[in-house]
Design goal:
two-stranded antiparallel sheet; 2 strands; 74% helix
Length: 258
């Protein structure tokens, strides 16, 4: 049986290159979402306030002694716990002493960098290992991960509940669209169109996301590696389905553009 590294060579150079570009896109998407203006400078809940307190004790007292760090307050030496994993807090406390930046902002920056870099790269590496002969899976997993990391947090910062709910529809609708392209079944295409309409009625921003993702899939399906040998009539039928989906997205976005 072939090893993962041997199976990886079966993927075309174009697929491997596109997968890497998707990883770069995932990092850029994460950066755009997490570094957008309006991100609060104060942690949002009590648990994060506790973490900020631990960091402050480390930074101000210059110690990692749990009797000091986990104390109930600066004036009360009683500890709140006998043990707590503090490696992340040490990192933030070190950054606080080195830069002088507010602890709350450093905590959010720490979470943001994890979401922007660590999760997409980790997903990419894992999926490249699990499916080495299908690198696009890794690329799209990284791209999805960039959105999922910010998904429950950023929309609630500014009250985007409708946006948050609509995001959950995108993967299923995208899968349905790809199935309708493969099968070219009229009923399935109609169901896909109705699903896209449902997304538009929930929040039109996700129609833009759908259009971008569908355009990428369409370009690869029509002009990517291996398509030169496809029967011309088959390509025209496939193009017709992609065109129908594109027209649907365009019509739904038209009111926003006028």
């Amino acid at each position: 049986e072939a090893t993962p590294s041997e199976r990886a060579t079966s993927a075309t150079a174009g697929e491997r290159s596109l997968a890497l570009w998707l990883l770069v896109g995932a990092i850029l998407v994460g950066a755009a979402l997490w570094l957008a203006p309006g991100l609060p400078s104060v942690p949002l809940n009590r648990d994060v306030q506790n973490h900020a307190y631990f960091v402050a004790r480390m930074a101000h007292e210059n110690t990692v002694d749990t009797d000091v760090v986990l104390s109930q307050s600066p004036t009360d030496p009683a500890s709140v716990a006998s043990y707590y994993p503090l490696a992340s807090h040490v990192t933030v406390a070190t950054a606080r002493r080195a830069t002088g930046q507010p602890i709350a902002e450093l905590l959010i920056a720490w979470a943001a960098m994890s979401a922007i870099l660590v999760l997409p790269c980790g997903l990419y590496s894992l999926d490249r290992r699990l499916a080495p002969d299908r690198p696009l899976i890794a690329g799209f997993a990284a791209l999805a991960g960039a959105g999922l990391a910010v998904f429950p947090y950023q929309p609630f910062v500014w009250g985007g509940v409708a946006f948050l709910v609509t995001m959950t529809l995108v993967p299923g609708v995208l899968a349905l669209a790809l199935e309708s392209v493969d099968r070219r079944d009229t009923a399935l295409i109609g169901l896909t169109a109705a699903s896209v309409l449902g997304v538009a009625l929930a929040h039109t921003s996700e129609v833009v996301l759908l259009a971008i993702l569908l355009a990428g899939f369409a370009a690869w399906d029509l002009w990517g590696s291996g398509t030169a040998d496809r029967d011309p009539r088959e390509r025209r039928r496939t193009a017709a389905v992609w065109g129908t989906l594109a027209a649907m997205c365009a019509v739904l976005l038209l009111p926003e553009l006028l």
